[in-house]
Amino acid sequence: MAAGFGTRLILLLSLFVFGLQICSADDDIHKDNIVVILDASGSMQDKFSGDRTKSKMEAAKAALQEVLSKVPDDTHIGLLVFSGANIRNEWVYPLGPKDTQQLITAIHLPQPSGNTPLGKYIRIGANRLLEQREKQYNYGNYRLLVVTDGEASDADKVKHYTPAILNRQIRIDVIGVDMKTDHMLANVVDGYRKADNPGELVAAVSQILAETGDTGTDVGGEDAFEYIAPLSSEIAADLIQRLTTPPSNTSIAVKQAEATPTRKTPPTQAPTPQQRDTENRGTLWFVVVLIVLSVIGFLIFRNRK
Asked: Which of 77, 150, 231, 251 would staple 236 via disulfide (CB 3.0–4.6 Å)?
């Protein structure tokens, strides 16, 4: 009797703990995730060409502080910085829950210096989002926001990694800060905006983060049925399969350096019979001429005696 009561008590406690774990997971798996990649290269210390009141970095910091401090508290935020004279850890704010004060401190840390290795850092940011999406069972939205003022110094990596990121359903938005021409990603990524002065930069960050993310798998059931109602059964089945197939969370591998093509040494060709015949004829004529000259020299020497 006592043993049966103990067994039932343990079972009830186990169910209680299991229920708490489910509730906790449900709170975490629907969170949205934003990784901001901030260009801290040397050119970011320059002032805007049309507005000399602020440098591009000062304006970027002010825009990020104003907008990111207002996103919902349950949003996960990460701030990834490349280059920068004083950056020891590229994740100046690791992806995680928003702590407004620590986030503001991190935003104001970078001091511009160095070049623009954007390709390397979009891969780092995307892989961190993929890791987080795996933890959240593919729920939630995942996006990269790039704030940069110049073309990448590793353009080959940008071209290589960008399709891989988009194929994994990670949204990419890019803000080109006071660039003379559109960024190389302008026509490739999900969203691109130009910011030619501090006000436009604040507006661009606000507009991008205000847009509803569309990279998650949270689909409202009734809305989905209304959407597919006019479609044929075959097309609807294909669409449902696409919507319900989870995106890949496989990390993006490092691009291998392309092998430097080696210069091939042309093989040494053996002389052909015709070449050998020509060489032999040349030698024969040389000997004949040498003999003739020798005879002529001998005759001249003898007549002098």
From this structure: 231
Start-to-end CA span in the chain (Å): 150
Is-contact 83 115, C-beta < 8 A? yes
Q: Quickly count: other Cβ atoms within 10 Å of residue 30's Cβ.
A: 15
Provide the whole-model pTM. Answer: 0.70
Chain centroid to Cα 271, Å, comes to 55
Contact 195, 178 (CB under 8 A): yes
d(CA 29, CA 137): 7
Say which residues have a Cβ less than 8 Å from residue 125's Cβ, sequence separation at least 6.
35, 37, 78, 80, 144
Residue 170: C-alpha distances to residues 35, 75, 127, 289, 297 (Å): 11, 16, 10, 85, 95
Count other C-beta atoms under 10 Å from residue 95's C-beta: 18
- CA–CA distance, 110 with 205 (Å, rounded to integer): 18
pLDDT tens readout for residues 15-30:
555 455 545 555 567 6
The one-letter code for the residue type at 104 is I
Question: Residue 173 gets which letter from DSSP?
Answer: E
**Contact 214/172 with Cβ under 8 angstroms?**
no
Interval 191-225: pLDDT, tens: 999 999 999 999 999 999 887 555 554 544 455 55
Inter-CA distances, 276 with 27, 36, 267, Å: 88, 73, 19
Could you tell me which residues are beta bridge partners of residue 78?
35
Q: Number of helices (H) and strands (E), helices first, in the chain?
A: 9, 6
β-pair type (171-177, 142-148): parallel
Residue with tokens 């040498």: 290
Residue with tokens 């847009």: 211
| Distance, C-alpha 182 to centroid of its chain | 18
